[in-house]
Amino acid sequence: QVQLVESGGGVVQAGGSLRLSCQASGSIFGLNTMGWYRQAPEKQRELVATITRGGNTNYADSVKGRFTISRDNAKNTVYLQMNSLKPEDTAVYYCNALVMTIRDRNNYWGQGTQVTVSS
Known about the structure:
Elements: E1 2-7, E2 10-13, E3 18-26, E4 30-39, E5 46-51, E6 57-59, E7 67-72, E8 77-82, E9 91-100, E10 105-109, E11 113-118
């Protein structure tokens, strides 16, 4: 059993900052690419940022220069530092990880954490 647990969401004014964390736990043999996705009301879930085990990153154009993804492999944790937040960043943010167990490799999602940016 593998779990991804997010934390760090909340309400912030435009221009403010938040830091999201997501820790993977359970029967983990290895973690490959980890990432953050978000889903705003009545919109499809979209990629925010991903990071490989080696540290290569990829960002959505809408967050480049404002968000930074990082990870601590020893802690099985991925972070998302969000600066200069805008009202359009309001969404539920989901952590994602490609997890290898002894038996297989599967994609896992966290339960989501709400980020609300007020204008």
